[in-house]
Specification:
There is one protein chain. The protein is of the alpha/beta class. The protein is built from 5 helices and 9 strands. The strands form 2 sheets. It has a 6-stranded mixed β-sheet with strand order 4-3-2-5-6-7, with helices on both faces. It is globular and about 50 Å long. The structure holds 1-O-pyrophosphono-5-O-phosphono-alpha-D-ribofuranose (PRP). The site of 1-O-pyrophosphono-5-O-phosphono-alpha-D-ribofuranose (PRP) has 19 residues, from strand 2, strand 3, strand 5 and helix 4.
Length: about 220
Protein backbone atom coordinates (compact mmCIF):
# COMPACT_ATOMS: atom_id res chain seq x y z
CA UNK A 1 0.00 0.00 0.00
CA UNK A 2 1.32 3.48 -0.78
CA UNK A 3 2.77 4.95 2.46
CA UNK A 4 0.43 7.92 2.16
CA UNK A 5 -2.56 5.73 3.08
CA UNK A 6 -1.07 3.51 5.77
CA UNK A 7 -2.23 5.77 8.56
CA UNK A 8 -5.88 5.51 7.53
CA UNK A 9 -6.16 2.07 5.99
CA UNK A 10 -5.68 -1.36 7.52
CA UNK A 11 -5.10 -3.10 4.26
CA UNK A 12 -5.90 -3.28 0.61
CA UNK A 13 -8.91 -5.55 0.19
CA UNK A 14 -9.12 -5.53 -3.62
CA UNK A 15 -6.14 -4.52 -5.72
CA UNK A 16 -6.18 -2.48 -8.90
CA UNK A 17 -5.38 -5.56 -10.88
CA UNK A 18 -8.21 -7.58 -9.32
CA UNK A 19 -10.62 -4.72 -9.97
CA UNK A 20 -9.56 -4.44 -13.60
CA UNK A 21 -9.93 -8.15 -14.23
CA UNK A 22 -13.30 -8.42 -12.60
CA UNK A 23 -14.69 -5.32 -14.28
CA UNK A 24 -13.59 -6.71 -17.63
CA UNK A 25 -15.47 -9.95 -16.86
CA UNK A 26 -18.59 -8.03 -15.86
CA UNK A 27 -18.45 -5.97 -19.06
CA UNK A 28 -18.19 -9.11 -21.14
CA UNK A 29 -21.22 -10.67 -19.45
CA UNK A 30 -23.27 -7.47 -19.80
CA UNK A 31 -22.26 -7.09 -23.42
CA UNK A 32 -23.40 -10.61 -24.15
CA UNK A 33 -26.74 -10.19 -22.36
CA UNK A 34 -27.60 -6.77 -23.75
CA UNK A 35 -26.47 -7.27 -27.35
CA UNK A 36 -28.84 -6.31 -30.13
CA UNK A 37 -30.65 -3.34 -28.59
CA UNK A 38 -29.59 0.08 -27.40
CA UNK A 39 -29.41 0.07 -23.63
CA UNK A 40 -29.80 2.76 -21.01
CA UNK A 41 -27.26 2.72 -18.21
CA UNK A 42 -28.48 4.41 -15.05
CA UNK A 43 -25.76 5.00 -12.50
CA UNK A 44 -26.12 6.12 -8.90
CA UNK A 45 -24.12 9.12 -7.77
CA UNK A 46 -21.51 9.54 -6.39
CA UNK A 47 -19.84 6.28 -5.54
CA UNK A 48 -20.04 4.68 -8.98
CA UNK A 49 -17.74 7.19 -10.63
CA UNK A 50 -14.71 4.92 -11.15
CA UNK A 51 -16.51 1.62 -11.53
CA UNK A 52 -18.91 3.07 -14.09
CA UNK A 53 -16.15 4.66 -16.15
CA UNK A 54 -14.18 1.41 -16.29
CA UNK A 55 -17.26 -0.71 -16.94
CA UNK A 56 -18.85 1.21 -19.79
CA UNK A 57 -15.67 1.96 -21.69
CA UNK A 58 -15.44 -1.78 -22.25
CA UNK A 59 -18.99 -2.09 -23.55
CA UNK A 60 -18.90 -1.90 -27.30
CA UNK A 61 -22.60 -1.55 -27.83
CA UNK A 62 -24.82 1.47 -28.23
CA UNK A 63 -25.91 2.93 -24.93
CA UNK A 64 -27.23 6.07 -23.35
CA UNK A 65 -26.11 7.13 -19.91
CA UNK A 66 -27.96 8.89 -17.13
CA UNK A 67 -27.55 9.36 -13.40
CA UNK A 68 -29.70 9.34 -10.33
CA UNK A 69 -28.41 11.17 -7.29
CA UNK A 70 -29.29 9.46 -4.04
CA UNK A 71 -27.76 9.61 -0.61
CA UNK A 72 -28.48 7.80 2.60
CA UNK A 73 -28.31 9.97 5.64
CA UNK A 74 -28.02 8.77 9.20
CA UNK A 75 -25.25 6.81 10.86
CA UNK A 76 -25.37 3.08 10.39
CA UNK A 77 -28.03 3.50 7.75
CA UNK A 78 -30.47 1.53 9.91
CA UNK A 79 -32.39 4.71 10.52
CA UNK A 80 -31.05 6.25 7.35
CA UNK A 81 -33.40 8.08 5.11
CA UNK A 82 -32.86 8.27 1.36
CA UNK A 83 -32.69 11.65 -0.26
CA UNK A 84 -32.81 12.08 -4.03
CA UNK A 85 -30.42 14.79 -5.18
CA UNK A 86 -30.78 14.25 -8.92
CA UNK A 87 -33.63 12.73 -10.85
CA UNK A 88 -33.44 10.68 -14.04
CA UNK A 89 -33.77 12.70 -17.25
CA UNK A 90 -33.84 10.02 -19.95
CA UNK A 91 -36.96 8.01 -20.60
CA UNK A 92 -36.56 4.33 -19.83
CA UNK A 93 -40.01 3.21 -20.96
CA UNK A 94 -39.68 0.15 -23.18
CA UNK A 95 -35.89 0.24 -22.83
CA UNK A 96 -33.30 -2.27 -21.69
CA UNK A 97 -31.90 -0.73 -18.53
CA UNK A 98 -28.84 -1.48 -16.46
CA UNK A 99 -28.83 0.08 -13.00
CA UNK A 100 -25.30 0.44 -11.61
CA UNK A 101 -24.25 1.00 -8.02
CA UNK A 102 -20.95 0.68 -6.21
CA UNK A 103 -22.06 -1.31 -3.18
CA UNK A 104 -25.09 -3.30 -2.13
CA UNK A 105 -25.20 -3.10 1.64
CA UNK A 106 -28.53 -3.01 3.50
CA UNK A 107 -30.15 -2.97 0.08
CA UNK A 108 -32.33 0.03 0.85
CA UNK A 109 -30.87 2.18 -1.90
CA UNK A 110 -30.98 -0.39 -4.67
CA UNK A 111 -34.43 -1.65 -3.69
CA UNK A 112 -35.87 1.85 -3.65
CA UNK A 113 -34.26 2.95 -6.91
CA UNK A 114 -35.06 -0.27 -8.68
CA UNK A 115 -38.73 0.08 -7.73
CA UNK A 116 -38.69 3.66 -8.94
CA UNK A 117 -37.26 2.61 -12.31
CA UNK A 118 -39.53 -0.39 -12.61
CA UNK A 119 -42.53 1.91 -12.25
CA UNK A 120 -41.34 3.78 -15.35
CA UNK A 121 -42.00 0.73 -17.54
CA UNK A 122 -38.63 -0.49 -18.85
CA UNK A 123 -38.63 -3.53 -21.13
CA UNK A 124 -35.93 -5.10 -19.01
CA UNK A 125 -34.20 -3.94 -15.84
CA UNK A 126 -30.99 -5.47 -14.54
CA UNK A 127 -28.80 -4.40 -11.63
CA UNK A 128 -25.03 -4.38 -11.36
CA UNK A 129 -22.94 -3.69 -8.27
CA UNK A 130 -19.22 -3.76 -7.76
CA UNK A 131 -19.41 -4.94 -4.15
CA UNK A 132 -21.96 -7.05 -2.34
CA UNK A 133 -21.92 -6.90 1.46
CA UNK A 134 -24.54 -9.54 2.24
CA UNK A 135 -23.99 -9.49 6.00
CA UNK A 136 -25.96 -6.31 6.55
CA UNK A 137 -28.83 -6.87 4.17
CA UNK A 138 -32.19 -5.59 5.34
CA UNK A 139 -34.10 -5.62 2.06
CA UNK A 140 -34.73 -8.80 0.11
CA UNK A 141 -32.67 -7.92 -2.93
CA UNK A 142 -29.72 -9.32 -4.86
CA UNK A 143 -27.98 -7.79 -7.87
CA UNK A 144 -27.89 -9.52 -11.25
CA UNK A 145 -24.19 -8.76 -11.77
CA UNK A 146 -21.82 -8.71 -8.80
CA UNK A 147 -18.14 -7.84 -8.83
CA UNK A 148 -17.04 -9.07 -5.40
CA UNK A 149 -18.66 -10.53 -2.32
CA UNK A 150 -17.13 -8.75 0.68
CA UNK A 151 -17.38 -9.21 4.44
CA UNK A 152 -18.69 -6.51 6.75
CA UNK A 153 -15.70 -4.19 6.51
CA UNK A 154 -15.78 -0.45 6.17
CA UNK A 155 -14.41 -0.18 2.66
CA UNK A 156 -13.27 2.92 0.81
CA UNK A 157 -11.62 3.70 -2.49
CA UNK A 158 -12.37 3.19 -6.19
CA UNK A 159 -15.27 5.60 -5.76
CA UNK A 160 -16.36 4.63 -2.26
CA UNK A 161 -16.01 7.24 0.43
CA UNK A 162 -15.96 7.95 4.08
CA UNK A 163 -17.27 11.48 4.63
CA UNK A 164 -16.58 12.17 0.94
CA UNK A 165 -12.91 11.23 1.27
CA UNK A 166 -10.88 8.36 -0.21
CA UNK A 167 -12.92 8.10 -3.41
CA UNK A 168 -9.76 8.66 -5.45
CA UNK A 169 -7.91 5.55 -4.25
CA UNK A 170 -7.32 3.24 -7.22
CA UNK A 171 -7.98 0.16 -5.03
CA UNK A 172 -10.56 -0.84 -2.42
CA UNK A 173 -9.16 -0.64 1.08
CA UNK A 174 -10.35 -1.29 4.62
CA UNK A 175 -10.61 1.85 6.73
CA UNK A 176 -9.05 1.73 10.18
CA UNK A 177 -11.79 1.80 12.85
CA UNK A 178 -10.08 4.69 14.63
CA UNK A 179 -10.67 6.84 11.56
CA UNK A 180 -14.44 6.50 11.64
CA UNK A 181 -14.61 6.31 15.43
CA UNK A 182 -12.77 9.58 15.88
CA UNK A 183 -14.87 11.27 13.23
CA UNK A 184 -17.23 13.68 14.90
CA UNK A 185 -20.19 15.76 13.85
CA UNK A 186 -17.85 18.28 12.23
CA UNK A 187 -17.52 16.03 9.22
CA UNK A 188 -18.68 17.40 5.95
CA UNK A 189 -20.67 14.58 4.51
CA UNK A 190 -22.29 11.70 6.30
CA UNK A 191 -21.65 8.85 3.94
CA UNK A 192 -19.84 6.57 6.35
CA UNK A 193 -21.51 3.40 7.54
CA UNK A 194 -19.39 1.69 10.17
CA UNK A 195 -19.69 -2.07 10.10
CA UNK A 196 -21.32 -3.92 12.95
CA UNK A 197 -18.52 -5.12 15.32
CA UNK A 198 -15.82 -7.04 13.57
CA UNK A 199 -12.60 -8.66 14.71
CA UNK A 200 -9.46 -7.95 12.76
CA UNK A 201 -8.82 -11.66 12.39
CA UNK A 202 -11.90 -11.88 10.21
CA UNK A 203 -10.21 -9.86 7.48
CA UNK A 204 -9.37 -12.05 4.51
CA UNK A 205 -6.32 -11.50 2.41
CA UNK A 206 -7.07 -10.16 -1.06
CA UNK A 207 -6.09 -13.51 -2.51
CA UNK A 208 -8.87 -15.25 -0.61
CA UNK A 209 -11.44 -12.85 -1.96
CA UNK A 210 -13.90 -14.72 -4.10
CA UNK A 211 -15.54 -12.96 -7.03
CA UNK A 212 -19.29 -13.07 -7.03
CA UNK A 213 -21.20 -14.92 -9.69
CA UNK A 214 -21.64 -13.21 -13.02
CA UNK A 215 -25.26 -13.64 -13.92
CA UNK A 216 -26.25 -14.56 -17.42
CA UNK A 217 -29.90 -13.79 -16.71
C1 LIG B 1 -23.79 4.26 -0.58
C2 LIG B 1 -23.51 3.44 -1.82
C3 LIG B 1 -24.84 2.82 -2.17
C4 LIG B 1 -25.53 2.74 -0.85
C5 LIG B 1 -25.58 1.33 -0.39
O1 LIG B 1 -24.25 5.49 -0.99
O2 LIG B 1 -23.01 4.24 -2.86
O3 LIG B 1 -25.57 3.63 -3.06
O4 LIG B 1 -24.80 3.53 0.08
O5 LIG B 1 -26.12 1.23 0.87
P1 LIG B 1 -27.46 0.48 1.22
O6 LIG B 1 -27.46 -0.82 0.47
O7 LIG B 1 -27.35 0.28 2.70
O8 LIG B 1 -28.60 1.35 0.83
P2 LIG B 1 -24.11 6.81 -0.15
O9 LIG B 1 -25.44 7.22 0.36
O10 LIG B 1 -23.03 6.67 0.88
O11 LIG B 1 -23.74 7.87 -1.26
P3 LIG B 1 -22.46 7.95 -2.22
O12 LIG B 1 -22.69 6.99 -3.37
O13 LIG B 1 -22.47 9.36 -2.69
O14 LIG B 1 -21.24 7.59 -1.43
Amino acid sequence: MPPRWRKDLERILITERQLARRVRALSRAIQRDFAGREMVVVSLLNGTVMFLADLIRRLSLPLRLDFIGVSSYGAGAASGELVFTKELRLSVRGRDVLLVDDILDTGKTLARVRAKLQALGPRRLRTCVLLNKGARRVEKIEADYVGFEIPDFFVVGYGLDFAERYRNLPFVGVLRPQVYHRAGPDLDGVGGKPPAGLAESQCPSPRRLRPGPVSSA
